[in-house]
Structure prediction request, 205 residues.
Amino acid sequence: MRFPNPDFHVGHASFTPFSPGSDVEGELLQDRIILVGDIDAAAAELLIASLLLLERQNPTEEISLYVNSAGGPIDAALAIYDAMNLVSCPVATVCIGSARGGAALLVAGGATGRRAALPNSRFMLRAPRSEFEGTAAEAEGIAAEATRLHQAVSALLSKHTRLTPAEVDAMLSKSIYLGAADALAAGIVDKVIERPPRAWRGIIK
Prediction:
């Protein structure tokens, strides 16, 4: 994800029609749509900045996250999750393609009633991955932090879904895959969009 040009302003008054070579993601941002791909520290920083920018432009209008992500370090995903809950705008989430690991948490963490998946989307719940590095002497502390992160993710997924903590733990330990219908049954999303309208805007209202 890239920031739009310096003269970019959210709002239809400054909208520039698409042309070859233009910043597609910047133009989507004007419609309060953010694409979420694979997650790392740099991607999380840009995504959080975009959330804050859109909140500043309009603190009550919905922001939509379209997620197609293999996940990444859980630290980055949790930073995005916290920013989603920090901003005053309702944050809708849509899974297009796949949402694995921390990306599945982001979809589940969207505003209640505004979480959706397309019919062929896939979810994978797996144990959190982080980027801890250290010496053998630090291994005990690293292991303890990994356990803490596992418990934190398990608690958040249980909070946002119909799954019990025990069910979440079992899924995380086995790297379970879920289709869209299974994700709906588990409460990860609120609806499966069988026939999207022409305009992406507002599809989960």
Q: What stands out?
A: The chain has seven helices and seven strands. The longest strand covers residues 91-100. The first helix runs from residue 24 to 30. The mean pLDDT is 83.
